[in-house]
Amino acid sequence: MAKKGVLALCSGVSVYLYHARYSQGKLLALHKEDAQILSTEYCPPSNRPDGRAKVPQTSAKDGPLVLQLQQVQIIFRHGPRTPLHTTPNLSEAVYDNDLLIRGHQESMFPYIRISYLGEPIQGWSNLETNLWKKPLRGGALSGQLTGYGKEQMYMLGLQLKDIYTKRLDIATYDADEVRVMSSNVRRTVESAQSLLAGMFGKEQLIDYAQCCGPVRIYTPDPCYNILVPNTETCAVLRKSNQSAMVNPDFIPGFKDQRLEVEEHIMKRREKLLEAITEVQSRLDATSAFYESEGPRTRYREINKHRDHYLHDPHMQPLYDERAQAIEKLDRFWANVLTREPALQDIITTGDMRALVYLRNLRVEQFEGTVASGYRIHLYFDENPFFHNTHLCKVVYTNENSPILSRETPIKWKGDMQKLVQEGLFQDEEEDSTLKEKMECEDKTPKCARQFSPKTEEPPQKSEQEVIGEDSFFSWFSTPTSCDSDTVGSAIMGDLWKNPLAVMENDPKVHDPWDKKLNFVYSYDDATSRAVHGWWYPSQLRRYRDMIESNAATTIHYSMTGQNPEARKIITRLSAGPLLTEMIDTARRMMCGEKMPKLCLYATHDSELVALLEAMCLWDHKWPSFCADLRLELYRELDGCDFYVRVLYNGKEQRVRGQTESYMLWGDFCNAMRKLTIRREEMERICRSNILERIAQEILRQCKKEKETEETKAISNTPCGM
C-alpha cells in the first residue's frame, strides 16, 4: 500500500509539472531595471464594450511582456489635525497651540500658492477662514494640521520616495516632472509641503527655490473645485449634503442610536447635578432658618486672594461645598448666566464663546472705614481667549469712594478680544464671499502680476477693537457705578443664591452644547483626540463601533447619494471633476505631450469617499488621515498598449468589478466613462431639478428644516473635511 501511495503521488506531481510548462501566467508590472522573463502571451487589445479588463496571456515561447511605469497620480488626505467639531456634554480635550501647532523642521522650504489663473494668491477659502472663529481649549484653532500631522505626511513622502522616484526617474525635484495641487485650505497645503519634503528632501527643495523660485502649489478654481465636492456652488450636492448632515435622523436606526448615546452621556451629568441639588437644598433650608432668626453676625476674614470680606460662618461652608460640586460639571455657570432674565439682553453669542470656560463663580461683600462694596470672582479653565484664570470685579458702594469700581485687566490672547465681540469678521466674511461670487461670475482671465515670494502666514488682522457696550465682558471691563450695576445686582441676587432655579428659564443665547449628538462630529472629536495621544472619551467607548459605522454611512450618503438613482448623479458630481482631470492628464501623456510624471493632489476625506465609491472601492470605513489613492499608468515596452493599476493605501484594488489589478487603458476609461464630467455639464446638472425626479426624500428633509445661519454653513461645507 505504501509503494502504491508513493507511486500515485509521484505520478500526480509529474502530471502537474507537465501541464505547468504550458500554463498561462498572469500579467505582472516590473521596473524597467528589474525586468524579468514572464511566461505570458500578449494579445493586442480590442475595443470591448463591457469595460472589463482581460489579462493578456501567451505561451512562454512568444517571449516576455514587460511594463514600464510612466506616470503616477496620487490623491491623499491631509495629515492628523485638530478637530473641527466637539461632542455636546463631553469635556473638551486641551489642544495646546504652542505644543501641537509647531513647525516641522524637515519640511520648511519656500513655496507659494498659485491660483488656477496662474497668479499667486494670498487669501484662503471660506472653508479655512471660517475656522478662525473656532478656537479650541488650549488656544489651537479648529482644523489645523498639527506637528504630528506634518510628521506623518513627511513619512508618507519617504515611503513614496522609495517606491517611485527611481522608477519614474525623478530623484531630483523638477517642476516640469512634478505637479502639486491642493485645496485652498491650510492643512492640505501644509500636508503637500511635508509630503514633498519627504520625497525630495528639504535641502534639495531649498536649492531649487534659490535657483528657480519657490515651489509652486496650485489651487483649483473655487467655482469649479476639483479637489472638494462643490456643495457651496452646486445646489444638487448641497441638498444631498444638507439632508444627511442636518437631518441624519431619517437614516434607518440613527435616531434610536443617537438617543441611546445621548442618554448614556447625560447620566453622568445628571448625577453631578443631583449632587449640586442636594447641597442647594441644605443651603436653602439653612438660609430660611437664619432669616427667620433675624440679622446674622458676620466676621471679617481674608480670602485666598488676600482681600478681606464678610464671612458668614453658617452659610459660607455650604457655598464652598456647592462650589466644589459645581466645579465637576462643565458649563454650569455659563448656562445659568444666559438664563438669568436680567442678563439676557447683555450676554451675547460672543460672550458665550468665553463663558463656557467659566468653571466657578463667587460673590463677596466687604465693609470698612475706607471702602465698602462687593466683589464678583470669575474662575476660568484654561481657554483660547485670554490668559487669566481668575477675573475679579470690585464695585464700591460707599459715597466717598474715589473710584466707582476696579477690574482685573483681561490679558487677551492675540486678537481673541475681537472673537468674543459679537459679529466678529462679519465684514471680512462678506467681502470674501462677495469676492468669490464676483470671480465665479467673471470668467475672463486676469493678467499675471509681479509678486515677491514670502512666507505663508494667516492674513494679519487689524488692531484689537473695543468690545461693544452691551455685552458681558464690556460690563466687566468698564467702570461701573453701584447705582446702575444691573449685571452685578443680578449676580448678587437670585443667581448666586439659587442658580438651579435660574436654570429653569429659557436662554436667549444657547450654549453650543444645546444640540443633538451628531455621529460625524463625535467621530471627528474622538478620532482627533486618539491620534494625538488622548484617551478615547470614556462615555463613548462602548459605542465606538456604532459611532464609526454611522459616521461613515453619513459621509457616504452626503457625498454619494442616498439611493441607487441618486448615487449615480451625486457620485458623478462629487468625484467626476477630479476623475476627469486625472484621466485627461494620463491621456495627454499617452498622446506624447510633455506632462508631469508625478501628480500630487492634496484633498479631504469627502473627496476620497466620492472617488472610492466611483471606483466601487468603498469599504464602509472613513478614510484615515494620510490615506492615499494612487493611479499608476504603465506602458508595454514591446508594444504600444497602456495599462492602469489602482492602489488604496498601498494595496492593489480591483476597480468596478474587474478581476485583475492591471487594466488596459481602454477598459479603465470604459469603466469610468459614466462618472467623468465636464464643467459645462456639471453646471447644467447643478441648476436642474433632477432631485425632484430621483430623490424626493432628500427634498422632503430639506423642506422640513428651517434654514438658519448655522444650518446654512453646515450645508455649504462638505461632510467631513
TrEMBL record:
Keyword Protease: no
Pfam families: His_Phos_2 (PF00328), NAP (PF00956)
UniProt entry keywords in alphabetical sequence: Hydrolase
GO biological process, one term: nucleosome assembly
Chemical reaction(s) catalysed: 3-O-[beta-D-GlcA-(1->3)-beta-D-Gal-(1->3)-beta-D-Gal-(1->4)-beta-D-2-O-P-Xyl]-L-seryl-[protein] + H2O = 3-O-(beta-D-GlcA-(1->3)-beta-D-Gal-(1->3)-beta-D-Gal-(1->4)-beta-D-Xyl)-L-seryl-[protein] + phosphate
Keyword hit for 4Fe-4S: no
Disordered as annotated region, ranges: 439-466
InterPro entries: Acid_Pase_AS, His_Pase_clade-2, His_PPase_superfam, Histidine_acid_phosphatase, NAP-like_sf, NAP_family
MF GO annotations: phosphatase activity
Protein name per the record: 2-phosphoxylose phosphatase 1
Organism: Elysia marginata
